Write a sequence for this structure.
């Protein structure tokens, strides 16, 4: 049974113009975010701005999907809240929302948020492997992505739908639903801090990978030894260049995600320390307004489109792709060049011996 206080606060929230304006604004922003993400996906599918490994493409597409996933379920929840608060009821308790309706939507939203973070970590691991496994660009490693994807879905589903839903009262009706309750606060904080630690480690790994590839590329360019230039295969040079381009593309997106997660976490912490009851009208509006996921979706799309535009103008592999048509042909092109460079000195030495 719902308490009379909850029913009264639900009635008050239904008369709040500020709450409805926040809901309308967030719905509009989510629509803008959906259009921008659709533009990003269309750009990736129609314009080959530079050659990327198959696995990194899969991970980027999954990240875009999870952002769309978050936007969809966030918008669904906002529309339901706006609809129920805009109706007229004689009984104040009719403004409450049942847990069985809002919990699956919120869980799906949280699933997408956690999956975004795990995908960011996966990209850093994938680029780490690409940095130290020099045959990675030639070997497709097709089993790596299915293992990553299955492990991620199982892990995130367990957190979102099971761990955070253990103490949920399915028969309850609430003013505004929140996962953070007195019963599950330890689990909630553990999950939040663990995912934050994962994202911090991923950012550190991104910068380390960028440093290693910059260092190796610079050392190769500065060397005067032709032997070192030849022993460093063209595929290895290409791989270092691709690692650098991918990290430069992803790193601003990762930092924006981290910043918005920090802002969201700080806002939720301020709320939990100042008022433990989300049914309060002011804090219901505050909690809805400080959910930063839609801002990340918009920022990510703008950063990606801007970065890709710069890459299109500066990437040296564009001519290879344009002339050869496909990634496989470009790889064969690199192999042919490598063979020419490796064979030519040997022929010169043989002809020199014949003259003598």
């Amino acid at each position: 049974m719902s308490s009379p206080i909850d029913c009264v606060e639900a009635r008050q929230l239904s008369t709040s113009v500020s709450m409805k304006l926040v809901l309308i604004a967030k719905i509009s922003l989510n629509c803008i975010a959906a259009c921008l993400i659709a533009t990003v996906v269309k750009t990736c599918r129609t314009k080959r701005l530079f050659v990327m490994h198959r696995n990194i493409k899969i991970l980027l597409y999954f990240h875009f999907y999870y952002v769309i996933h978050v936007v969809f379920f966030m918008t669904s929840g906002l529309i339901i809240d706006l609809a129920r608060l805009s109706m007229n009821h004689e009984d104040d308790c009719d403004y409450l929302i049942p847990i069985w309706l809002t919990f699956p939507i919120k869980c799906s939203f949280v699933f997408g948020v956690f999956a975004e973070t795990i995908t960011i970590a996966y990209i850093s691991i994938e680029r780490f492997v690409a940095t130290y496994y020099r045959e990675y660009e030639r070997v497709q490693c097709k089993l790596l992505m299915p293992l990553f994807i299955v492990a991620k879905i199982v892990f995130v589903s367990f957190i979102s739908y099971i761990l955070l839903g253990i103490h949920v009262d399915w028969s309850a009706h609430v003013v505004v639903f929140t996962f953070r309750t007195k019963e599950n606060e330890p689990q909630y904080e553990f999950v939040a801090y663990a995912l934050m630690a994962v994202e911090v480690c991923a950012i550190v790994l991104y910068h380390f990978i960028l440093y290693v590839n910059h260092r190796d590329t610079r050392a190769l360019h500065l060397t005067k030894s032709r032997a070192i230039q030849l022993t460093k295969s063209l595929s290895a040079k290409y791989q270092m260049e691709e690692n650098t381009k991918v990290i430069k593309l992803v790193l601003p997106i990762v930092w924006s995600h981290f910043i918005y997660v920090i802002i969201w976490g700080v806002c939720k912490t301020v709320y939990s320390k100042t008022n433990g009851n989300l049914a309060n009208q002011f804090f219901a509006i505050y909690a809805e307004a400080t959910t930063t996921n839609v801002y990340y979706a918009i920022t990510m799309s703008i950063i990606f489109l801007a970065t890709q535009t710069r890459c299109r103008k500066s990437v040296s592999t564009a001519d290879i792709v344009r002339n050869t048509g496909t990634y496989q042909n470009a790889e064969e092109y690199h192999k042919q060049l490598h063979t020419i460079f490796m064979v030519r000195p040997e022929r010169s030495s043989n002809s020199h011996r014949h003259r003598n």
User: Anything to note?
Assistant: Confidence is low (pLDDT under 50) at residues 224-230, 315-327, 340-356. Residues 234-274 form the longest helix (41 residues).
